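Structure in, sequence out. Go:
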């Protein structure tokens, strides 16, 4: 964890942003997968990690704004725990490491909350994403699990977003470490992408890298020769020449900061002419979007810039036609890229998404679109220095979607449906980088992971 003053400073800033009441942060518990004692890899809640730093289960952080006190609630280990888990620091020792003097066991939390309720004080929570939290909170508040949402505080959500969205220097250093791990994962994936390999051999190998060098993957690996399925977690295909293989994967550091990178490569190490045309269109969209990143610009505008560059590339290969800007205006590009350009990244790979995408990626001045494709843009708001975000344009040939649009003759003035038929076996391409918005522009985080056609072919030539 960071030094205690980091967490104290963060909590002090939070206290200055919320008016009164109690701020309650439920840390995560262990979660079981097929029987109680067989648990998933433990992952602490990111808000808890950000403000309280402790990476252990069954802890609750509480900030009492009215009494000006901070607490960690948790139970000290007993002899059974020591036998199975080894000796553990006491809750008081742990709390001191993050600058908190007051501790008590979990039974005292219920008394604290009921007293505050009797006094009619406001209790602020952020939205829950685990049912165990819902049950714990329902018990604490003495309400049905359906009523727990009434305690979710927009004031708290907005305060957290305003702090977590601007990355501190020490956080950027952590994200760079996650990028180093991603570099090894992706160059390994490229070098393994040869005919006859099964996708899971590559996915398993690169997941092993994330475990060996950090704290596992930041999300389940997407690795597929069917990249047209955006979040494809099936890893059973055997690689064949002529296919493009998408690898969308990132790591968490031991401090739980994420990376999120996508590379797409031709199986066998050499792009054919058809692959080059589509790949270059996506790469140009990726690079033009990155180039445009600076404080003050709305990310929604960068999304549409990437879409326009993609359309220009598709016009070059004959799949689209007409005026690129008009095609984007008509949202004709969403046949090929039915998702948003990117999202923020930090302690979560989709940073703060549990707080609600619209609070995180949008604000009073930037409202989310509801139209097909564009509605998936997780972030549209104006950029500020210190934001870390992804830029991940793609081009996908989704047979069912092509058939649907073709049957409706949708956007036929911009789409060459005749030629498109022959691309239905193409798969998909996505190219994703992680970017820091700086005072003057932007910085691509991590050492460059090969992405030009020449650099990918050169990397793949070093086969493993
Ligand atoms: N985790 C998938 C993505 O957002 O890139
Ligand atoms: Mn990704
Ligand atoms: Mn992403």
């Amino acid at each position: 964890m960071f030094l205690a003053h980091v967490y104290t400073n963060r909590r002090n800033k939070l206290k200055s942003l919320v008016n009164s009441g109690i701020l309650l942060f439920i840390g995560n518990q262990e979660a079981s997968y097929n029987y109680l004692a067989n648990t998933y890899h433990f992952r602490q809640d990111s808000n808890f990690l950000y403000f309280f730093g402790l990476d252990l289960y069954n802890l609750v952080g509480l900030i009492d704004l009215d009494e000006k006190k901070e607490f960690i609630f948790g139970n000290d280990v007993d002899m059974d725990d020591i036998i199975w888990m080894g000796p553990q620091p006491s809750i008081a020792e742990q709390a001191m490491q993050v600058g908190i003097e007051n501790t008590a066991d979990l039974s005292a939390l219920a008394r604290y909350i009921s007293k505050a309720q009797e006094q009619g004080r406001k209790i602020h929570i952020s939205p829950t994403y685990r049912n165990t939290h819902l049950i714990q909170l329902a018990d604490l508040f003495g309400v049905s699990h359906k009523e727990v949402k009434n305690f979710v505080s927009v004031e708290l959500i907005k305060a957290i977003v305003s702090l977590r969205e601007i990355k501190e220097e020490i956080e950027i250093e952590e994200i760079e470490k996650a990028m180093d791990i991603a570099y090894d994962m992706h160059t390994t994936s490229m070098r393994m992408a040869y005919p006859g390999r099964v996708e899971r051999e590559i996915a398993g190998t690169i997941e092993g890298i994330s475990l060996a060098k950090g704290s596992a993957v930041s999300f389940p690996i997407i690795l597929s020769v069917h990249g047209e399925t955006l979040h494809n977690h099936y890893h059973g295909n055997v690689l064949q020449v002529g296919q493009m293989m998408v690898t969308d994967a990132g790591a968490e550091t031991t401090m739980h900061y994420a990376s999120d990178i996508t590379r797409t490569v031709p199986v066998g190490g050499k792009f054919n002419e058809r692959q080059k045309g589509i790949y270059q269109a996506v790469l140009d969209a990726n690079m033009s979007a990155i180039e445009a990143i600076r404080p003050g610009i709305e990310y929604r505008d960068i999304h549409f810039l990437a879409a326009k560059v993609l359309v220009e590339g598709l016009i070059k290969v004959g799949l689209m036609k007409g005026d690129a800007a008009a095609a984007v205006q008509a949202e004709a590009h969403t046949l090929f890229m039915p998702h948003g350009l990117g999202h923020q990244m930090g302690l979560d790979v989709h940073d703060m998404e549990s707080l609600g995408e619209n609070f995180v990626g949008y604000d009073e001045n930037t409202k989310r679109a509801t139209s097909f494709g564009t509605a998936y843009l997780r972030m549209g708001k104006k950029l500020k220095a210190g934001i870390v975000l992804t830029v991940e344009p793609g081009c996908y040939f989704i047979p069912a979607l092509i058939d649907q649009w073709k049957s409706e003759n949708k956007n036929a003035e911009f789409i060459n449906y005749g030629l498109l038929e022959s691309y239905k076996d193409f798969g998909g391409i996505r190219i994703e980088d992680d970017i820091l918005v700086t005072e003057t522009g932007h910085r691509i985080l991590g050492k460059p992971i090969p992405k030009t056609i020449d650099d990918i072919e050169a990397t793949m030539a070093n086969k493993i």
